[in-house]
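Quick one, C-alpha cells below. Sequence please?
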C-alpha cells in the first residue's frame, strides 16, 4: 500500500493509532470486497475514523453562545408602535 505523493511518511508523523491505541499501518485506504467492491464494515479503522469525525469540535463553527441571560427589567419610555406591532411595547 502506498501513500499519496504529497503525504508525509509515517516515520515523520509517528505511529498512527486507533482510538483504543492499536497501531494502524495506513489510514489512507479502506478494506473493500474486491478492487471496485463496497467498503466492508469489518474495516475497524474506517468505522472508528468516521465515528470520531462527526464529533470533532471546530471552534470557527460554534454557533450558539452558552450561559448568557438578561437581568433587570425593560421599560418602554416612548411610544414605539411605528416600529413594532407588539402591544406590550406600545404605550
Amino acid at each position: 500500500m502506498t501513500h499519496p505523493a504529497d503525504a508525509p511518511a509515517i516515520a515523520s508523523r509517528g505511529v498512527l493509532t486507533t482510538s483504543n491505541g492499536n497501531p494502524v499501518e495506513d489510514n489512507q485506504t479502506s478494506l473493500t470486497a474486491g478492487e471496485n467492491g463496497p467498503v466492508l464494515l469489518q474495516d475497524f479503522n474506517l468505522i472508528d475514523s468516521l465515528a470520531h469525525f462527526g464529533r470533532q469540535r471546530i471552534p470557527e463553527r460554534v454557533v450558539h453562545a452558552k450561559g448568557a441571560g438578561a437581568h433587570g427589567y425593560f421599560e418602554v419610555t416612548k411610544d414605539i408602535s411605528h416600529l413594532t406591532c407588539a402591544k406590550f411595547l406600545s404605550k
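The chain is about 15% helix and 5% strand. The mean pLDDT is 76.
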